[in-house]
TrEMBL record:
PROSITE patterns, sorted: HTH_CROC1
SUPFAM superfamilies, A to Z: lambda repressor-like DNA-binding domains
Pfam families: HTH_31 (PF13560), MLTR_LBD (PF17765)
Domain of life: Bacteria
Name listed for the protein in its UniProt record: Helix-turn-helix transcriptional regulator
Domain HTH cro/C1-type residue range list: 36-83
Length: 288
């Protein structure tokens, strides 16, 4: 993925989604040459000169102050993730060199294996699944059957037809969130070659991924709800939480899912847990 002018493309995309009447500006009607706000209108809202704002959209963020970025963020009505992303694009963080492949401490795998009635897994910084328990393989994807270089949620969401079928009508929101998270990660570590290579490989295929990438959405993954149509038990609705792993720089987070206590989804998970066990990452390692 050519890095290009990530800052300018992001600003343009956020400007295009706003209309003058949404931000208190007078609209004179007629056909506008560009979607959303004009550069002049955005500069007026942010309290900066048009020339200064144009330089930002051209990718020239040298010496731009935090205060000006905050003003532009307010004018564009950015949310928390987008606000942080704007600052990272204007002031890129230093390259974060990570180990390849990620290293997993044995206690983390032991923790995963001890969770027997809910999916749980550890992911790296490229949506790569580093370790998983047996219910992850049962509910989502049997990762033991996936080639190691395709054990990423990005691959599974966009290229695995079986997983897409399990997501059902929820595929598009999940795919959009995945791509928005990749945008978030690019802002965190713009010089991460493995991340860029992953994105390039999907962009080269065109289609849905490229369309979603061009939306320039940005979001971190903190908590939410998974909806899976399992071939044996039907619909599963599983709230999830993410736990960061600050002591493991090669890893991103631990993802844990749990059905609402007493719900039909808890009963379904229990039924799956009592059935034939698929392989966890520790099972796979022992058989290697």
């Amino acid at each position: 993925m050519a890095q290009g002018n990530d800052l300018g493309e992001f600003l343009k995309s956020r400007r295009a989604r706003l209309q003058p009447d949404e931000v208190g500006l007078r609209s004179y009607g007629g056909r506008r040459r560009v979607p959303g706000l004009r550069r002049e209108e955005l500069a007026q809202l942010a309290g900066v000169s048009v020339a200064y704002y144009v330089r930002l959209e051209q990718g020239n963020a040298d010496n731009v102050s935090t205060e000006i970025l905050d003003a532009i963020s307010r004018a564009l009505r950015l949310d928390g993730d987008e606000h942080a992303h704007l600052h990272r694009l204007a002031h890129p963080p230093r390259a974060d060199h990570r180990h390849d492949p990620p290293r997993l401490r044995p206690p983390l795998q032991h923790l995963l294996d001890s969770i027997t009635h809910a999916p749980a897994y550890v992911v790296g910084h490229h949506t790569n699944v580093v370790a998983w328990n047996r219910l992850t393989a049962e509910v989502f994807v049997d990762l033991a059957e996936v080639p190691p270089d395709e054990r990423t949620w990005t691959h599974q969401i966009h290229l695995n037809d079986d997983y897409r079928n399990r997501l059902g009508d929820n595929w598009l929101p999940v795919a959009r969130r995945n791509v928005a998270y990749l945008r978030f990660r690019v802002g965190q570590d713009p010089r991460d070659a493995r991340l860029r290579a992953l994105i390039d490989s999907l962009l080269s295929r065109g289609g849905d991924f490229r369309r979603l990438w061009d939306e320039h959405r940005v979001v971190d993954l903190t908590h939410g709800e998974a909806r899976i149509v399992h071939p044996e038990v039907g619909l599963l609705v599983l709230p999830y939480e993410t736990l960061h792993l600050p002591g493991d720089p090669d890893l991103s987070r631990l993802m844990m899912y749990a059905a609402e206590p007493g719900s039909e989804y808890e009963d379904k998970l229990n039924r799956l847990a009592a059935g034939p066990a698929r392989r966890s990452s520790s099972d796979l390692a022992r058989s290697a």
